[in-house]
Amino acid sequence: MSYHALARKYRPATFDAMVGQEHVTRTLRAALRRDKLAHAYLFSGPRGCGKTTVARLLAKALNCTGGVKDEPCGACEACAAVAAGSSLDVLEIDAASHTGVDNVRELRDMAQYTPSPGASRVFIIDEVHMLSKGAFNALLKILEEPPARVFFFFATTEPAKIPRTILSRCQRFDFRLLTREELSARLTAIAADEGVQLEPGALRLIVAQAEGSMRDALSILDQVLAASPERIDEQAVVDLFGLVRSEVAIELNEAVMARDPGRALRLADSVAAGGQSLDDFAHSLVDNFRNLLLLRIDPALAAGISLPEDQIAILRRQAEHFAPQDLLALLDRASRGFERIHRSGQPRVLLEALLVELVLLESRVVLSDLVRRLEALTGSQLTGGGGPQPARAAGAGRSPAPGAKPPSVQTARAEQRDRVAQRGAPQEPDAPRDHGASQVRDSATAAAATTVDGWPAFVETLLGRQPALGSCIMEGIPAEEDGRISLCFPVEKQFQLQLIQKDLPRLQELARELLGRDIVLNLVSGADPARREHREELRRSVAPTEHEALQRACGGDAALDNLVRRLDAEVVPEADRDGWHTAPDRGGAAQRED
């Protein structure tokens, strides 16, 4: 008898033998028991996860003469005929080679005949998405109203390509990839049946290569068995498939931490010299930084890493040398590099460039860390004890890789001096901005704007309640004497004065309420031009611009003032804020979307 591949030899013969698709088999077995099986099913999912196998098991159960209602016996004549592909009542079609309308018409004609010798006629169409548009249209009528005891089972890896008119006539089940544990248990059992010793390292590599597909796992195991019929170790799998050993990723991490591109390039040269796949090496970089990220975030996530315990322990120690934002950047660069290498005709050149980029990639720091570094360098306190801390913003600054020394004060000052020179600014880079003068002006503004006790607060409240009236009040200059407030308006502001005159009783009552004392309002026309500067001072106090608000905030918060001066921060005009957004979880700091 000719040799049967493991994928054929160990194909499940019963629903109980199916691995990893309990959500599908449980529902179908319940439908069989209650005789509520639909006439059309669509089984979708990745390759090698059991779609066609379940369709055949259903066909066996419908025609089985010796088993229970929800499980084929696998031993009767009908079950044996289905398993051998010789049953007259079960027709399995490959849609990739039967795509035309004529093929579907033949199938439709066959459906009209009474099943014989079985109880049901079953049509299994594999890769049904390969049918042409005309073939799908030819299926519609019989699929909607099939003859009695006729069933259609469709299998596909691309359900998005199937017309909605077909999908609406089927019950759909989505198959999933198998977990590492499910694959490992099944492969271990099969290896034991075959009398082969399968070592844990080899099992791990086979499972990783299968990527959740049982058929792929059995095909790989079959290939390894041909080379090592008695004992399969990790080295045998590595040599057979040209895989990259996991220790290579650990050595690469050391090169990244040491910022040694030469070491990384020698590592790539040894991989290429050993005949190993550079594409697999690039893919292993993505897995490596993903593993480091998981361990850096939470060591308990090691359960999701398919590596031996000793290597996980090494990766756990290495992960402590990286910040999460660094690992995110490395993972992003590695994944984009793998995509380019996978499509390139010169993979080695791109791989070497990627390794140098990863090794020399500068570390990302958050703004609060930068402030703490500045505090350590300058010896001055930049963060107020009770004030708000600087907003965290990934990528706001750059710093050397972990373990490298931070930039010196002289270097920072030299960079600032260069920026000032490029803008043509005459001031010294280390000279602070004229915040002291602005604080004096703010104090003078507050004093001048409050010649009437509580007047700025009164105007601000009035602007909130009655904006039109409040804006008119802004044009007047208040002065209080013996409980009387004289509100002087320039000659050109007679319109505002007249509007206030109409609502003067109500305004006077509101002023008593807000100012907390009995007052009388007098409206006077013809203000002294020398006093008109008070109107601008009142405006600064009640409705400051964003720049003025920043100056005022810096005047009241030494930490903010120092940070603004050291970062050379400026207010971005509203018109220039396209493409900016506010990140609430990072203190509201404005950040570019790109």
Detailed description of the structure:
This protein is α/β, with parallel strands linked by helices. It is 53% helix and 10% strand. A five-stranded parallel sheet has the order 2-3-4-1-5, covered by helices on one side. Helix 6 links the parallel strand 3 and strand 4. Helix 3 packs antiparallel against helix 4 and helix 5 runs parallel beside helix 6 (133-144). The two termini are 64 Å apart. Mean pLDDT is 78; it is low at 384-417, 419-450 and 581-594.
How far apart the termini lie comes to: 64 Å
Total domain count: 5
- Binned strand content: 5-15%
The total beta strand count reads 14
Residue-averaged pLDDT, rounded?
78
CATH topology (fold) name of the largest domain: Rossmann fold
Q: CATH class of the largest domain, anyone?
A: Alpha Beta
Estimate the global geometry from the Cα principal axes. elongated
The biggest sheet amounts to: 5 strands, parallel
CATH superfamily of the largest domain: P-loop containing nucleotide triphosphate hydrolases
User: Strand order of the main beta sheet, please?
Assistant: 2-3-4-1-5
Give the count of helical stretches. 27
The helix/strand class is alpha/beta
What Rg, in angstroms, do the CA atoms define? 39 Å
Q: What level of helicity do the residues show? A: 40-55%
Unreliable runs, pLDDT <50, ≥5 residues? 384-417, 419-450, 581-594
CATH architectural type of the largest domain: 3-Layer(aba) Sandwich
